[in-house]
TrEMBL record:
InterPro entries: Folate_rcpt, Folate_rcpt-like. PANTHER family: FOLATE RECEPTOR (PTHR10517), FOLATE RECEPTOR 1-RELATED (PTHR10517:SF14). It comes from Elysia marginata. GO terms for cellular component: external side of plasma membrane. Residues 35-185 form the Folate receptor-like domain. This is Folate receptor gamma-like. Transmembrane segments: none annotated.
Length: 256
């Protein structure tokens, strides 16, 4: 009986892997209308009028985060268990960059083409190798290089070191390794901005659209940011993927 249940469990996990919603993205619009499957993310991007002034403002027109999440990012120093002040306070300019990064992580509606599966309590997907503009990375690094860190929680007995020391004076190493989400690129016409003035259209939109076209092997078509539809074209988040999970959990309960 146990063996049977275990086999079923295995099969349902395999089915789930095969039916990952990321394998079902088959139009550019699918890629453009998806948010990371995470605890603090919406299911698809939509306007958030509350994201004004400093509160994750670039993403007001189309956002994967709610206003509430944006507020938490700005006010909670241990948001998502990342303690900013684990080696004494971060300098204000460095902290500001980490806030921008958190806003990007939670709110950017353009990471669809770089989503991969993940298995953590806070998220079932993450983005990987998003092309970050080198000048933005350099600024982030310059703001933080003399700040102290031991990367999140300091293990007992470990010492705090400067970011520059840990990342060997390399801005690219810093941006790529600090959270493992970015790939620093020189091509200034085809890279992401961590932040931009909300007066202007989202510059990352075209980069994501180009990448989605590349993945699907279709011709890239430029679309003005304003013309992007907000109605829900996203792949439903209650997908076969979740069904698979539910089945697995039910079976797990049955086995135990
Ligand atoms: C980084 O720069 C500092 C100061 O210029 C220097 O002492 C150190 O050796 C450099 N480290 C590496 C890994 O290049």
């Amino acid at each position: 009986m146990r063996r049977f249940a275990f086999s079923l469990l295995l099969i349902s996990f395999l089915i789930e892997a095969g039916f990952s919603r990321l394998n079902n993205l088959n139009t550019v619009e699918n890629y453009m209308n998806i948010c990371m499957l995470g605890m603090h993310h919406k299911s698809s991007p939509s306007p958030e009028k509350g994201l004004t002034s400093k509160i994750c403002s670039p993403w007001a027109a189309r956002s994967c985060c709610t206003e509430e999440t944006a507020l938490d990012i700005h006010t909670d120093p241990t948001w998502l268990n990342f303690d900013w002040n684990h080696c004494g306070s971060l300098s204000p300019s460095c902290r500001e960059y980490f806030i921008m990064d958190s806003c990007f992580y939670s709110c950017s509606p353009n990471v669809g083409p770089w989503l991969v599966e993940d298995v953590r309590k806070i998220r079932k997907e993450r983005f990987k190798d998003v092309p970050l503009c080198k000048p933005e990375c350099d600024n982030w690094y310059d703001a933080c290089k003399d700040d102290l860190t031991c990367i999140n929680k300091c293990p007992q007995g470990s010492t705090c070191k400067k970011f520059s020391e840990i990342y060997e004076n390399s801005s690219s190493l810093f941006c790529e390794k600090v959270f493992g989400s970015f790939k620093v690129v020189d091509d200034v016409d085809n890279c992401f901005h961590l932040w931009f003035d909300a007066k202007y259209p989202n510059p990352n939109e075209a980069v994501a659209r180009r990448r989605a076209s590349e993945i699907l092997n279709v011709k890239y078509e430029h679309v003005e940011g304003a013309k992007l539809t907000d109605h829900n074209k996203a792949v439903s988040s209650c997908s076969v993927w979740e069904l698979g999970w539910m089945l697995s959990m039910l079976l797990l309960v049955a086995v135990l």
